[in-house]
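Please, structure for the following, as tokens.
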Amino acid sequence: MLGDYEQTMAWLRNLVRTGGYIVIEDGFLADGVAHLPPAEGYVGHSETLRQLTACRDVVVQESICPMEQTRSVNQRNTDLIRQRASLLRASHPAFEQLIDEYVARQERETRTLGTDVLCAIWVLRRT
């Protein structure tokens, strides 16, 4: 992202002709989650939509990923990251601490996604 959604859209829309489409895949805070340090920068659903449309572009489609699907995909990705990290540690022992920190960060983010942050895809038409 290039800042919050409003800043991102203001920049991206300059690259898209009038009537063209912009696709954003990201997320927003689940209901009842006011602020979440691991998900810094995320806002609630209504504020997300307000920021996405601040330049008067139109949301033509919104797809909110089911939590179970998000958890499943993220678990698979985390497993693959762990496997690759194991190979990297073996071939680059000097970077073991960096690799372990990266894996731990990915595991924390995976726990956040699908519970406190809902994943979504938005298709916007530039006006």
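The CA atoms of residues 27 and 119 lie 4 Å apart. Residues 67-91 form the longest helix (25 residues).
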